[in-house]
Structures are given as C-alpha cells and as structure tokens.
Amino acid sequence: AVYCVAYSPDGKHIASGWSDNAIWILYVDTGEVVVGPMTGHDDWICSVDFSPNGELIVSGSADKTIRIWNAKTGELEAWPFIGHEDVVRSVAFSPSGKFVASGSFDKTVRVWNVETGECVLGPLRGHNDAVTSIAYSPCGKYIASGSSDGTIIIWDSETGEVTHGPLIGHTHEVASICYSPNGKLIASGSFDRTVR
Q1: How many Å apart are CA 139 and CA 46, to the nearest integer?
Q2: How far apart are the C-alpha atoms of 45 and 108, rounded to whole Å?
Q3: Burial code of 28-53, b = ≥16 C-beta within 10 A, e = fewer?
Q4: What are the distances in angstroms from CA 71 to CA 22, 46, 98?
Q5: How would you classify the pairing of strands 56-61 and 45-50?
Q6: pLDDT for 19-43, tens place per residue?
Q7: Other CB atoms closer than 10 Å to residue 16's CB: what's the count?
Q8: Is the pTM of the predicted complex or chain greater than 0.70?
Q9: Cβ neighbours of residue 177 under 8 Å, at least 6 residues apart?
C-alpha cells in the first residue's frame, strides 16, 4: 500500500511512502523512479514532506521515528529523531525549512530542529486521542493539529501555547487538515464524512 504522497516545491517530483517501509521519488510526467527505494525505517511510512527548497524529505513512520533524507541521492541526512512513544502519523516542514513538526498516536505534537535532531518544542499535550494530521501556517507562526478525538488545535510554533481550540464540530476522527495559501482558513476532512 502507498500511505502518503507529497509534491516537490517545483512540481516535478512526487515522494511516496509505502507499507514495505520504503520511500520512492518519481517523475510527475513519466512516473519514472528518480530515487529509491530509500530504506531505513523499521515499519510503514505514514507521512512524507519535501523541504521548502526541495533538497530534503522528512518521513514519519510507525516505527516511532522521524528521518531526514537527501531528495537527490536518497541518503539519510540525519540520525533518526527519537522521542515519540507511538506511531508518527504526520510530519511537516516549517516554511523556513529549519524545523519539522510531528504528530503521533501518543497524542502529542513535537517540533524538531532539522540540523541537530533536537526536540525544541514539546511534547505538546491537548488532544485526548491520536494526532493524525499536522500543518504549518504559511507564515510559520502557527501549527494546526487534527486528532482522532474529533478536534483541531492551533498552537504557537515558538511557545507551544494553544492559540485557538480545541475547535469542535466534527463528530469523528479528523483525518486530514491543511491551511489555505493566505493562512486565514483551515480545511479539515473527517471520518464523519464531512469537510469543514
């Protein structure tokens, strides 16, 4: 199974995470494999994201770790980021490319320094169930998290304080969230069969 995909910033490549614990990068136009398999995780790949400059890929896995890869060579750029106590369900680069936010089945949100692998913020606790989706605001000031508890929380990306939420409306797990390009809106998809 293919669990996750992400476009490169230039729109020419797609990174994909698979149930065989591997990551592949493909050409959009031809479907040809550019890089892969990128292996190292010990369990399925839950989430992938390109850095804003397209040079790196971050991956979150059911093995509870986060890894940073060179998007051109497929080589591991940093040691696994360890700290989550359960599946890392969602990862996202900050707009600056200096940080990665992660959401886990351990109900927490964390922020990591890309260069050092240090957890610089968190664990942020506020959800009552698994964190299933993470998104940075376009300005980088906020992080939105969606959860199996049916809520969305917006965090200050520097202090970890809750700025909005929990936002209540969905009646089932929030499976996916994303910011609008201007940062004023958040879209969410849920197992309750609605988009809000």
Answers
A1: 25
A2: 18
A3: eeeeeebbeebebbeebbbbbbbbee
A4: 14, 18, 16
A5: antiparallel
A6: 999 999 999 999 999 998 999 999 9
A7: 17
A8: yes
A9: 133, 134, 135, 144, 145, 146, 152, 186, 187, 188, 189
